[in-house]
């Protein structure tokens, strides 16, 4: 040991680190060898004696101890084992020994082997407890439920004490033994051999793959303080499905809970290419061989025919149907009642739908626990939203029932219970066969049929009595139930001769539910005598000889039947006079009476009898101080008040009528008790805006006295017409207006006054708009004195138109307006002044002018009428010398635009005669002459216009072509010589220089002439008659050629057309020929004006 | 005979429906059933032909409803399952040459037998259906199919052919047992509807052929009847 220590220490002295590391490694190896040597020495020492004593137990009763034999000890060597266990006990054994379990604590164990003795200390803590390997007695499978059932024996009899056992079970799947699940199972050992069962449901159908099961255990003995260890795994047992080589899909027609997971597999020899859940493709899980599985997670509720799972192999297809649904809900609203105390009907609501139909639908069982009877409900089809019902026959002498409704489907079951006393849960059927029979005019019997045996209970029925146009009445009747279902009851307090509608419903006592109302039964009660006489009034006829008796028909309640006739009689002290029967629709009778005091009585009769008579006195007591009052109502009625009069012993009567009706007038009357002092008269006949007369009669000593006469309206309205008014008188400053009354029918209220408006205005311009808008120019007069019928308007202006408007008003509003225009009379003084002043002024002006003219007469003559005119003053003869000398192109006098009024052609070949008024053409606009060429002063037009001569004009085409047209100067009269053509003319107007052409020929001639002009430009420059040039040369002394030669400087005037008797001027520009034909006219004048 | 109103057909022409319903209405008075005053089998063949066309139309709507009830993938247009358990259903598909070589009697007998079987299956279908609406539709169709069967029987009678007698024990029964899974049942239902459709097509062709044949002189029929009398 010292060596090692030294060796260990030595390297620390080394300085060189590298060397030191090498040395260190070496030393470690050395040290290891040394240790090995030492250990070998020790073990060789041990090997010479028994060593390594180990004890295990598998039943806690016997310890199985073993040790290592000393080297050299052969098989079958004998040992002496002595255990100090309170007492000293020795066993002579071979190598292993089973010794009884020792008590807790250390025990000395001596093993003698020959001369060598080994001593051990043995404690329970050093002992391992390893239970025996369990053995699976049986492994079975329920393929339909995919459940494995495991059976094994715990061999508990070998264990002295009760102790807990943990069993560990492992499930392996497929041929390669994938562990699927390891689970524990706890049991207790009870000293006896017990066979345990354990089941496990596979998530995958057991047919899909081989399943293996192994088991081991661990016994937890609380008193054993040694090592408790797991037993070894048992031998594996397996379960596999013996396939008949036919392809199958598992599970078939499985019902599972919505939301759960399921594995479906296909056991096949063929290769599966596709798996579908419904129409969804699914990934395949490969199992042994060609078997495949698919896993469906969280499956949703199936349709009614289930969820299809299909596996496709190359040329075939296999599948299964899975029904995913819910277990039945707890039946809700379970209610059991009876209609007839013979049968109990229980109804309930199934709650949440299960999504399972057909054979997998929920089945219900109704179980009654007291009697032990049950009724089953099974229906293939579940109607949605309909409650289920089951009938349970009632048992005699049983009133209390304890029902349990059990709902069951393949996924589970649920139940709901109900304890009922059926006599308290009676819901009677609808009463039927309702019949009514008379008792008298105010009572009937009502009978009906109510199915059921209610002999033991009381019924509460309700009768609804409906009278037409009246609120319905409900009467509750409690009656004893009967066995034969027929019920009868009397209904009284009815009105005679009234149509009643009865219907009945019933319940029981204690109340649970009303039955439905029975069908309605209509019934007319019988007649009774009228309860009172008719309301009567009388009127004297206008001649005062006849008394007309009026009465009102009795109301239905009073008539008590159909009134057939009335009896009217009048009686005085002496006699009683009875009239013949008056049939019903007539409510009036006329009796001729002298003015005696009669009492009239009226009796109404129906089929049963006569009413009590209603009496009225005929006498009318006169009233002297009667005045007519006014009253206005409240829209639908009118309030009348009067003072209390103790003399009035019987009653007050108010009668009224439309004021426009003639006497005797009676619309209606109303009787008021004698102690009242006011009443509101209401009637459907009242109309707003209609005037009514009301008469208040007081009854005194059996005679009526007219107390008050009132005219009134229930509601006033505005008048419908305007008052008719006329102007009585008009002066220069005033107008007198008179108007008429408005008829009562059109007034529609009490007249409160008139409004008179007036303003200045003419009939056409002034419209009286917005009279009420307070225009300042409108004057208004409010005439509140309704007796006033005239109005004088003063302070008006004379000879002015006034607009007058008149309208009437009531409390109901303004009536329409009527307007009139009136012109006031002229003021005569003003008129005279207005005439005289202008006349005087005119005279004065005239006188002054005359005087001035006389004084200056010489000057005037010189200026305006000289004896010899001064040629210098003649503007026509003025020449601007400077200009004339400078430019020969300028003209000083231009005579143009003289269009012949008429052109006469004496000879024509054309068949078309034509006459034109040239003035029409002269109106054609002329292009203004260049102002630089001609001075405005020189532009004097002197023209000659010959008298109108009828001419015939030749066809222009023929005219030109043939040149045969004869043109004659009929009358050429000029005070000027024809002048030469202007020099510039050819340059200015080579084309237009064709000269003058009568405009009526232009469209044709111009084109023709253009051609001619081209050839003969020089010759024809300037004026060129449209006739043949030769002809013109021969005939005309004023030919341009001749003048051209004689005078070259100034063109003086204008030649006349050969066709016309008018002066012509050469065209100044390329004006179209028609412009050159201008004659003097108004139009020409105006057209020339801009040039001036 | 037929509750024509309320037919849950999508996109059908009401005019055509009404017309065909009229045909069905008059079905009990099929002249072929009435041997006295027989105007020949022509009109009854025509009516039978019309009826097959009407049933075709009616089946289209029924099949739509029913396949939707079966759920996907049965209601998918390209779904074409193998004919597994439907072997007992009468097959409508036949080789064209074989079909041409059939004589009238055989042709009618095959039709009659097929529809007898199909009707029986269809009634089983009706019992299985879970919803009331479907049951109503199926019952309606069954009634119509019964009418067709009667019509075919009428034509056969008019032509003097005996009705095929159902052999005892071969009468198809509808037994939804544990052996028959829901999926196989659905496949059968699918095939039943498909076969029904094919049969209606075939019948339409059959009766059309028969109709054309009958339009040729009626003497042939008389001759045939005489021959039958012997």
UniProtKB/TrEMBL annotation, chain A:
Tell me which SMART domains the record gives: FN3 (SM00060)
Instruction: Region Disordered: list its residue ranges.
Output: 977-1000, 1020-1092
Compartments where located: Cell membrane
Q: Which Pfam families match?
A: fn3, LIF-R_Ig-like, LIFR_D2, LIFR_D4, LIFR_N
Polar residues: bias regions: 1081-1092
Q: Which GO terms describe its cellular component?
A: external side of plasma membrane; receptor complex
Mind telling me which InterPro entries this protein's record contains?
FN3_dom, FN3_sf, Hematopoietin_rcpt_Gp130_CS, Ig-like_fold, LIF-R-like_Ig-like, LIFR_D2, LIFR_N, Type-I_Cytokine_Rcpt
- Where along the chain is composition biased (Low complexity)? 1036-1047
Q: What is its main location?
A: membrane
Q: Which residues form the Fibronectin type-III domain?
A: 330-429, 430-529, 533-624, 721-828
Superkingdom of source: Eukaryota
Which positions, given as ranges, span the membrane?
829-854
Keywords attached to this entry: Cell membrane, Disulfide bond, Glycoprotein, Membrane, Phosphoprotein, Receptor, Repeat, Signal, Transmembrane, Transmembrane helix
Tell me the first and last residues of the signal peptide. Answer: 1-44
MF terms from GO for this chain are: cytokine binding; cytokine receptor activity
Q: Which CDD domains match?
A: FN3
Topology relative to the lipid bilayer, per the entry, is: Single-pass type I membrane protein
Entries under PANTHER family matching the protein: CYTOKINE RECEPTOR (PTHR23036), LEUKEMIA INHIBITORY FACTOR RECEPTOR (PTHR23036:SF105)
UniProt similarity note: Belongs to the type I cytokine receptor family. Type 2 subfamily.
- Outline what the protein does: Signal-transducing molecule. May have a common pathway with IL6ST. The soluble form inhibits the biological activity of LIF by blocking its binding to receptors on target cells.
**What quaternary structure, including any partners, is listed in this protein's UniProt entry?**
Heterodimer composed of LIFR and IL6ST. The heterodimer formed by LIFR and IL6ST interacts with the complex formed by CNTF and CNTFR.
Q: What is this protein called?
A: Leukemia inhibitory factor receptor
Species name: Camelus ferus (Wild bactrian camel)
Q: Which gene encodes it?
A: LIFR
Automatic annotation (TrEMBL), chain B:
Keywords attached to this entry: Cytokine, Glycoprotein, Secreted, Signal
**One cellular-component annotation, GO:** CRLF-CLCF1 complex
Q: Name one GO biological process term.
A: positive regulation of B cell proliferation
Query: Could you tell me where this protein is found in the cell?
Result: Secreted
Signal peptide stretch: 1-32
Q: Name one Pfam family in it.
A: PRF
Show the SUPFAM superfamilies listed in the entry. Answer: 4-helical cytokines (SSF47266)
Binding partners and assembly: Forms a heteromeric complex with cardiotrophin-like cytokine CRLF1/CLF-1; the CRLF1-CLCF1 complex is a ligand for the ciliary neurotrophic factor receptor/CNTFR. The CRLF1-CLCF1 heterodimer binds SORL1 (via N-terminal ectodomain); within this complex, the interaction is mediated predominantly by the CRLF1 moiety. The tripartite signaling complex formed by CRLF1, CLCF1 and CNTFR also binds SORL1.
User: Its function?
Assistant: In complex with CRLF1, forms a heterodimeric neurotropic cytokine that plays a crucial role during neuronal development. Also stimulates B-cells. Binds to and activates the ILST/gp130 receptor.
Tell me which family the UniProt entry assigns to this protein.
Answer: Belongs to the IL-6 superfamily.
Name of this protein: Cardiotrophin-like cytokine factor 1
**From which organism does this entry originate?**
Camelus ferus (Wild bactrian camel)
Give the source lineage, highest ranks first. Eukaryota, Metazoa, Chordata, Craniata, Vertebrata
Gene that this sequence comes from: CLCF1
